[in-house]
Amino acid sequence: MKLHNNKFKKFIVFEGSTILDVMKVIDNNRSGFALIFKDNEVVGVVTDGDIRRQLLSKGSLNESISFASDFHFVDYSHDFEKICAKFRENAVDYLPILLSGKLYNILTKRQFHAMLLEGVDYSPDLDFSLFDNVILEHEIYNRPWGFYKSVWLNSHAQVKIITIFPDSELSLQKHFQREEHWIVVKGKGRVRQGEKSYLVAPGEYIYIPKECLHKIINISPLHNFILSEVQLGTYFGEEDVVRYSDKYGRE
Fold first, then answer.
1. How large is the average pLDDT for residues 87-97?
2. What is the pLDDT of residue 163?
3. How much is the pTM?
4. How many domains does the chain have?
5. Which residue spans within 119-168 are E strands per DSSP?
6. Do 86 and 56 share a domain, yes or no?
7. Are strands 102-108 and 172-174 parallel, antiparallel or unpaired?
């Protein structure tokens, strides 16, 4: 079977290629790995780390590249469960997808995660390169009241884990393009929801509809307050945060 429009050529080197040849391919594809081919079949996978280790042991760019013949891959027939297991159990970041021993597709762990965060079902026929530019929110963002981390983000939803420091609070605010669903995970707090104000504890659920004034306060002087926030809507940026009052002087 021919490669799909030769789009995988930038990942391919051939058995017997030098370390320098492989380094050039990896530098060009900017993905951190290359596939070793022999007789039109994949016989190995080489990563940046493999090259560093070989250079440290042999010290020559003109040595033939070494590779393990028992590389990890998945078959075209393998399902979602098998893909998850491969990435999880083997700590690999790249999986060739083979059909009758021939290269059919390539899937990276980052693409796999981005695909799931976009709500797309796995299929070996997908063009996984389309997920290379999907933003994965792995960073922790600090705020005057604490910090948050997004664990899910696509065009219609965002999920955050929010930590509020002792005696700290979110601003009194509303949103026009999203609603929010809160589950208290740890600590005790006070919620302002419209004209209502009440105490909350772990396990309690709070619904914040669009255009509803709201805030939450960590009432503990000693312990963090943690909640899981699910946002549903059409836009999740800071421009949709309309503040009416803020302990920290933000507008």
1. 87
2. 96
3. 0.65
4. 2
5. 140-143, 146-153, 157-164
6. yes
7. unpaired
Q: Flag whether 159 is in a domain.
A: yes
| Measured distance CA(138)–CA(134) in Å, rounded | 12
Of the candidates 240, 190, 180, which has an alpha carbon nearest to the alpha carbon of residue 218? 190
| Domain containing residue 150 | 140-245
Quick check: 2 pLDDT over 50? no
Alpha-carbon distance 94 to 92, whole Å? 6
The residue count of the chain comes to: 251
- CATH number for 52: 3.10.580.10
The three-class DSSP label of residue 16 is coil
With 0-12 CB in 10 A as exposed, 13-18 as middle and 19+ as buried, what is 38?
exposed
Name every residue whose Cβ is closer than 8 Å to that of residue 245 and which is 6 or more positions away in sequence. Answer: 171, 172
Looking at the predicted structure, is the pLDDT value of residue 181 above 90? yes
Q: What is the rounded CA–CA span in Å between residue 177 and residue 41?
A: 50
Is 118 domain-assigned?
yes
Can you give the pLDDT at residue 31? 85
Contact 12, 37 (CB under 8 A): yes
Q: What is the CA radius of gyration of the chain?
A: 25
Please indicate, yes or no, if residue 251 is contained in any of the structural domains: no
Whether 250 is in a domain gets the answer: no
> What pLDDT does residue 126 have?
93
β-strand partners of 12: 35
- Bridge partners (DSSP) of residue 227 are 162, 184
Q: What angle do the packed helices 48-58 and 19-29 form, to 10 degrees?
A: 160
The predicted structure's pLDDT at residue 120: 84
Please tell me the distance from the alpha carbon of residue 233 to that of residue 241, in angstroms, as a whole number.
13
| CB-based contact 69:49 (threshold 8 Å) | no
pLDDT tops 70 at residue 82: yes
Q: What is the mean pLDDT of residues 72-96?
A: 90
